[in-house]
Specification:
Layout: E1 4-6, E2 11-14, E3 17-20, H1 21-31, H2 39-77, H3 85-94, H4 114-117, E4 123-127, H5 131-138, E5 142-144, H6 145-150, H7 166-183, E6 194-200, E7 203-208, E8 213-214, E9 222-228, E10 231-239, E11 242-248, H8 253-256, E12 262-268, E13 272-276, H9 286-301, E14 305-310, E15 313-318, E16 323-327, E17 332-335, E18 340-344, E19 351-356, E20 362-364, H10 365-381, E21 397-398
Parallel strand pairs: 4-13, 13-18, 18-21
Antiparallel strand pairs: 1-2, 2-3, 3-19, 5-12, 6-7, 7-8, 9-10, 9-16, 10-11, 11-12, 14-15, 16-17, 19-20
């Protein structure tokens, strides 16, 4: 058994390791409770893993360095000469950089979430050390198409700073109507001529400006709604597995000027978000690492918040709730409100002063990242499936630069 005891104000002895006190306190007080893992088991496990893997890690980096030295020399010796692919391949094989292709094999995966296994959509990368940005990324599962178009150059040059430009707004609305005509077309009509949307017997019907009604060319693209069927507040469509929500609000300043009362169109956007401990952050000491781990823990527990000051007002940003609709068949329909989050650990070249081995050498940072980020994710696995980051019950760790 490895016991922890004080060496000085900053470091704690754990077996033959020295661990930053701030990391020990974070793990023992914040991360371990309610995981089912005891302090003894965690720290014993850390010592075992570091003892086994840190030497192998250093050996592999030495192999990498030898490869790099040999490859650099090969190119320097041939400066100014045409590249010879065959000779280069023979050289790489001779030093062991390239090896013979092995036998074919299969990999079976289980408990993989739809966002990884079945759905295709955008992925964000966000620094774990910025709580507000991390929350924004997790909540980017849904985004306003109106806002995205108005403020960018998709429909022409970006608008100048200042108050709302109605002409620009009209361009945005026209573009979105054309978009809807492409992805969820009406049967023989255009959304630009729609003056009302209702749901009848599980079917979406659009009232046109000539008084006729039209359904969708593909009725199955209508999947749900909110509000009353005769006066829906939102219409949910689905195209290639991704949702489109038409927001109807005639009291809204945009919806009030729209013939159909459409105030916005929301798209299911960032299906996944890589919460990054690596390239987009600078965590140079133990306090920095704990700050990063604490934010990831908050995301996994679902209780991370950030105070935001915007436009002279202050509000609290937190993880978005799931979205509930009445399905086309009248049943309850729940759509995920957040991106599926993956933790990207640091690459193999990094070490951290947060943990030192028996010789006082910094331990590979990726090892500590893997252990602590997965420990934090145990809080997610303990939640009910509908509350989890991963309803399938998995933890996703991205290991870069393999």
């Amino acid at each position: 058994m490895n016991e922890t005891f004080s060496i000085d104000d900053d470091m704690v002895a754990v077996g033959d390791l020295r661990v930053a006190r701030v990391l020990v306190d974070f793990v023992n007080v914040e991360a371990l409770p309610e995981t089912g893992v005891t302090e003894q088991r965690f720290w014993d496990g850390l010592v075992e893993i570091v003892d086994e893997l840190a030497p192998r890690h250093r050996d592999l980096l030495e192999v990498r360095a030898r490869f790099q030295t040999s490859i650099d020399a090969w190119h320097r010796d041939r400066t100014g000469r045409p590249h010879d692919p065959a000779a280069y391949r023979e050289f790489l094989t001779s030093i062991g950089y390239l090896v013979e292709t092995g036998a074919s094999f299969d990999i079976a995966t289980e408990n993989v979430d739809q966002e990884i296994a079945e759905m295709a959509g955008p992925q964000l990368v966000v620094p774990v050390t910025n709580a507000r940005y991390a929350l924004n990324a997790a909540n980017a599962r849904w985004g306003s198409l109106y806002d995205a178009l108005y403020g960018t150059d998709v429909v022409g040059a970006p608008p100048p700073p200042g108050p709302y430009d109605p002409a620009r707004g009209s361009q945005v609305v026209a573009w979105v109507r054309s978009f809807l005509d492409d992805v969820a077309p009406l049967d023989g009509a255009s959304y630009s001529d729609v003056v009302g949307l209702v749901v009848q017997s599980g079917t979406l019907l659009a009232t046109m400006n000539d008084g006729t009604t039209r359904g969708l060319r593909e009725p199955t693209e209508f999947v749900g709604f909110t509000g009353k069927s005769s006066a829906p507040e939102a219409i949910l469509l689905e195209h290639h597995g991704l949702a489109i929500e038409i927001v109807i609000d005639r009291e809204n300043s945009v919806g009030a000027s729209d013939a159909a009362g459409i105030a916005d169109v929301l798209l299911e956007s960032a299906l996944t978000a890589i919460v990054d401990f690596e390239d987009s952050v600078a965590t140079v000491d133990a306090s920095d690492k704990v700050h990063a781990y604490r934010n990831w823990l908050g995301l996994m527990k679902g209780d991370l918040v950030s105070d935001v000051v915007k436009g002279g007002s202050t509000f609290v940003r937190r993880l978005a709730d799931d979205r509930t609709y009445t399905a086309a068949d009248g049943s309850n329909l729940v759509k995920r409100g957040r991106s599926l989050m993956l933790a990207r650990n640091v690459g193999h070249l990094m070490t951290t002063p947060a943990v030192l081995d028996r010789d006082g050498t910094e331990v590979p940072e990726g090892i500590i990242d893997a252990i602590v980020s997965v420990l934090a994710a145990k809080h997610d696995l303990a939640r009910s499936p509908e509350q989890r980051n991963s309803p399938a019950g998995s933890v996703y760790v991205v290991k870069p630069k393999m």
